[in-house]
# Entry
Amino acid sequence: MNSVPNSERRHIVFVGKRNVGKSSLVNAFIGQDLCIVSEVAGTTTDPVKKAMELLPYGPIVLVDTAGIDDVGELGEKRISKTIKAITSSDFAIVVLEASEQLSPKEWELFSYLNKISIPYVIAVNKIEFGINQLLLSEIKWLNATHFEVSCAENVGIDALKRKVVRLLPNEIGPPLISDLVSQGDVVVLVVPIDLGAPKGRLILPQVQTIREALDEDTIVVVAKDKELRSVLYNLKNPPDLVITDSQAIMRVAADVPENVKLTTFSILMARHKGDLQTFVKGLRVIDELNDNDKILIAEACTHHPQEDDIGRVKIPRWLRSYTKKDLQFDVTSGLDFPNNLSDYKLIIHCGGCMLTRRAMKMRIKESQIFDIPIVNYGILISYMHGAVPRALLPFEEAIEEWEKR
Ligand code: SF4
# Structure
């Protein structure tokens, strides 16, 4: 069983024109037939993901994509999904046909990879049919590392894997809580079980926080918000840290003594996945919003919206009530982050627990390119409920940013 969530694994995307052998290379990489391979161009439509262990590196996800030269209206949509898959990945393997020269689409692809600073190597595939020497000169001109491979004859695949292991970025981002606690600390986690909670399980940020707290040899107490007072009453000493679901922050802040460190799962995630300072900076625009300002709510996964959905219902309601302005909201989910952000006054992003850190940082970077402030759910909710700066106090960098206001 794969115990590491996909969002914590490095993503390797396989890109190239149709029919150059991307799916065959993915299959050769994992040593099994995951992807459908066909002589018919364009067999892969939506990106296909496979989690695996790449030894000695560790857990990764391979992403097979549709061809960058796909055609027609549907083809355009597939290309757009391929581009989003590239942007969300940590490393790219560009697959080229050994007998051809680079096409204009492939030149564009290389310039895009350089623009977004994603590391890549080239796999020159189908060498059993010969290698075009002009292609090798073009690769030399690109100053890129390439491997000559044949998926059909299983040539060059191991060397490619070894190189990927050496080049894969190792950045894992700040921890969730391990730098906030010490051995023997008591950490109380407040987890409301309401209609929005998934049936029979905890959500990923809660599970990851519990695991990290246990790894640090702390004592973890998990309770629903209505049991918190009883937990605090029964503990011999006040806890060292309380972490709550953002939606319960007001009640929890009222119950937890002022001298106890308090924050939210969403703020932990904002630091772990994104950039806490940028999100805190984004709060500055809240009190300047006006009637008809457009706000983007971005969720990183697709889920069936609940009746009182946090992104679609609660946050718009709270923000209209807080600002007393008639605000307009657009909601996107999954990979559908808009290419053009210029219409928005503010982006409110979910915790991004399903996104890799690189993908979250790319979204932050895009918001900065358009000069649009960005916040995340938890920071905004804490702010609107009067729990900022308290919920930011455990994080020096966030408080520094807050004090610049
Ligand atoms: S909406 Fe965002 S924070 Fe919520 S589960 Fe999906 S990815 Fe995680």
Residues 299-301, 350-354 surround iron/sulfur cluster (CB under 6 Å).
